[in-house]
Write a structure and sequence with these properties.
By secondary structure, the protein is an all-alpha fold. The protein has three domains: 173 residues, no CATH class; 90 residues, no CATH class; 96 residues, no CATH class. The longest helix has 24 residues.
Length: 369
């Protein structure tokens, strides 16, 4: 344990500062800002938890809690993939409170993911990555009752195993990821690209392919058996009033036009303007960075990053994209590796200010991402 702490003091210090900043911003928001939750089922939280603890499960988080308790009885709950709430339910062991289990689990998984990433970075690159990633304005979701921490842990572990050519274990993690988030299904393509470059066994490839999408296939079978609609996770999206289509694919130029229209119609001083601008900026920046550093990534990573960037836009909106961007962790590490510490420090400072603002607003009950 002593050797572990000696070798990795940097992430521990950064995580402590990061967690304290988020908690203090949340407590300040509770004490000083009006509270007007804009999401359903808030009484499920207020009846059992304090304002501070409840804030870890605002918006989508309450849906995961209800799935833990009630399964998929709520109309619209089918939008949320099952593996994460199943894991939380299992870890309660029928005794512990699921929200506290989720908070502890996500904290542990976040630390584990950070160690996995920096272990594969040079010492000079670790500080830059930690600054860039932990200061990102939606990084607080890693501590909340959301899938971010679990999914990113699976994602990073998958690419580490893929790099070591442990294809079977990588396929298993990909299958778990596809049962956690829709974008996890694209790890199948990363596995396929990497595998065919070194092996030609078509039967083994077929078996790995089925394993790597087993999560989403299993969920689709459940939805068909229970509700008669294997794509119900797409068809219920419009129920959340987030601007997403319920099956129709919207092309990127139309999405960009929608956002430009929003920026023209809304006042620059309104929160709707700021949120839309932030969504558009983060989306555009991720595309630009992908193009700039495309040759710095392996083909298997590149195809996943591209799919993860484009997928949210196909629903007709970039709502929640800043949160989805957390899962594109290879883009963070690539950018950090190829940028100076001065540049990363400036960007991180701006991000940190926005992070504190976003935490305060999220705790206040205002939708951020």
């Amino acid at each position: 344990m002593k050797k572990f702490l000696t070798n990795f003091p940097l992430p521990i210090i950064f995580v402590i500062i990061w967690v304290l900043s988020i908690c203090l911003a949340g407590l300040w928001s509770i004490k000083n800002l009006p509270f007007a939750p804009t999401f359903p089922y808030y009484h499920d939280l207020s009846d059992h938890y304090s304002r501070f603890v409840s804030s870890f499960s605002h918006f989508d988080g309450i849906h995961y809690l209800r799935i833990v308790h009630k399964g998929y009885d709520d109309t619209g709950s089918q939008a949320f993939f099952p593996l994460y709430p199943l894991l939380i339910k299992f870890l309660t062991f029928g005794y512990f409170d699921p929200l506290y289990v989720a908070i502890i689990l996500n904290f542990v998984l976040t630390i584990a993911t950070l160690f996995l990433v920096i272990k594969n970075l040079a010492h000079s690159e670790r500080l830059k990555f930690l600054l860039l990633f932990l200061s990102f304005p939606t990084s607080f979701y890693l501590l909340a009752n959301y899938t971010e921490s679990f999914f990113i842990f699976l994602l990073v572990s998958f690419f580490i195993l893929l790099k070591k050519k442990h294809y079977l274990f990588a396929a298993i993690l990909a299958g778990l990821a596809s049962g956690t988030r829709l974008v996890g299904s694209f790890l199948f393509l990363s596995l396929l690209i990497d595998f065919i470059r070194v092996r030609k066994n078509i039967f083994y490839l077929l078996a790995l392919s089925l394993i790597s999408i087993s999560g989403i296939l299993g969920y689709m079978y459940f939805l068909y058996y229970r509700f008669g609609d294997p794509l119900m996770f797409i068809h219920v999206q419009s129920l959340f009033s987030n601007g997403r289509s319920d099956g129709e694919i919207i092309l990127l130029p139309q999405v960009i036009f929608r956002y430009l229209k929003i920026l023209v119609i809304n006042s620059p001083t309104s929160f709707a303007y700021f949120r839309s601008l932030f969504e558009l900026v983060t989306f555009s920046a991720s595309l630009i960075l992908l193009y700039i550093y495309r040759r710095k990534m392996s083909p298997s990573i590149l195809v996943f990053v591209l799919c993860a960037i484009i997928l949210p836009s196909l629903s007709g909106t970039l709502s929640s994209y800043p949160r989805y961007l957390l899962a594109i962790i290879p883009l963070f590490s690539t950018f950090a590796i190829n940028s100076s510490l001065f540049k990363i420090s400036l960007i991180s400072l701006v991000q940190y200010v926005i992070l504190i603002l976003f935490v305060a607003l999220f705790v206040q009950g205002i939708f951020i991402a």
